[in-house]
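User: hey, got a sec? need Phosphatase dcr2 folded
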Amino acid sequence: MSAAIWVGLFWVLFVAVSHYFHAPIAPRVGQPGRLVDIDQYAPLVPQDAPLYNITVASCAPHIGCSLPRVMDDDAGPWVRVDRPLSGPTARKLGVWNAFDKPWYGRFVFYRRAIRPDTVRIVDVRATTVQQKPEGPGWQRLHEVLLPHRAHHAAVYLYVRTAPASAPDMGVTELSVHYGHHTPLPGFEFAGTITAAYRLHSQKVKVSLLLRRGPGVQVSRPTLRFRPDGTFKILQIADLHFSVLEEPCRDVVDRATCQSHNHTMARIEQWLDAEQPDLVAFTGDQWNGQGSSWDERSTTPIWVEPLIRRKIPWIPVFGNHDSESGFFSRTEQMQFLAQLPYSLAEVGPSALHGTGNFQVPIYAATNDTEAWTLWALDSGANAPFSLWRPWQSALYDWIHEDQIEWLLRTMRAKPVTPHGSHATRPPGLLFVHIPLPEAWDTPDKDGDHEWVVGWRQESAGSIGGQLRRGIFDAVQRAQDAETPGIRVYVHGHMHNNGDCLMRRMDV
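Assistant: Yep! Here you go:
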């Protein structure tokens, strides 16, 4: 067979194996949104059933995990907290993300109480024997979290239990966290597993998190115009956050810049000064490139200020977001959709990309959809082609099925009377990689070009999408009742902050 056929067979086999190891994280939930599958790990889904017992075990390929036998009917099956207890192991698994799930290392396991009258766990601590928790009722588990080494003492799990009649709120969830960052919403730190482990000349902290009660429960926000007819959106693009502190980019003095701290300090200032009604993250929230190897640990950095201020937010994906990490692109969007005040959606599964969705903005005084926010996934790398192998180095684009879905859904919206005429709501589109039209000559008013801001990066293979289509298609779909997309917003270009006007004839 020719080399092209062998290459094709290899990629078919690779995709098949990756699909075999892939498992979605969307759990079955009951009413009102409680987790039904007590044997499935889903830390952000509300859950009332408290933990009954905890253990630590090692997992290995083809062998599985050695767990103690279940000898009673008071609790459900063992559930694995799906992050390894070793920072270097987690990084390796997060970078090797083709198979999506952890498959070796030491893990924490727990069982949930299934009888309402049984004993439950009400507190958990990860610490050394020398720093064991004070007070009565604490029990140390025999299994060690972190064995003794020359540079640190052994770390154990301590648990405190209480009968069902006790007023203490039960622990309902555990998680493992990497880095010196904010924990997941609704979680608190339960101790340090590894204080500082050397990793590529940096140190990663590994912590245990716990949640009490069902967790953070926030209804999906509804967007409305203000009484004065305004609606303010703050766009944040290309954060490129990693588990560990990375060098600053695109700054004059890199030596004095602390990327996470300085970036979040600036975002906090913007949120307070602008008081936005919505924050739109337009891609590359995660750095990828082997450094953002755990999404659960990095995401709270940039969403916590919004949750604290109760500000709705939406994300679109960039070309780097799925380069490294435990989650597939679909699982990343499922994870973001579970966070408080998020308006994220996975979108239609039949379309190219993940995160193609719409969000209505209603009028201030009624439920008329005044505007529509659209999010489209502009992808990552261009699809691999045996006949054009050089194309794989270029970035992806908005595909025809995404454009057709946008136009079909846009024109299916009801027509609303506005004085002497009636129209559908105009739209605002968020993507990551800019449309090719972003580099076209702006409109002119005489000799004046309708462009503001600055541009230090130009188009090319690293600048805009490879193919045109969406701009012209939306323009052709416009008529007296369908104003279409009026504003296109993108990220991707770190050193550009310009806005230009392109006239769209109706």
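Quick note: The first strand starts at residue 51 and ends at 60. Let me know if you need anything else on Phosphatase dcr2.
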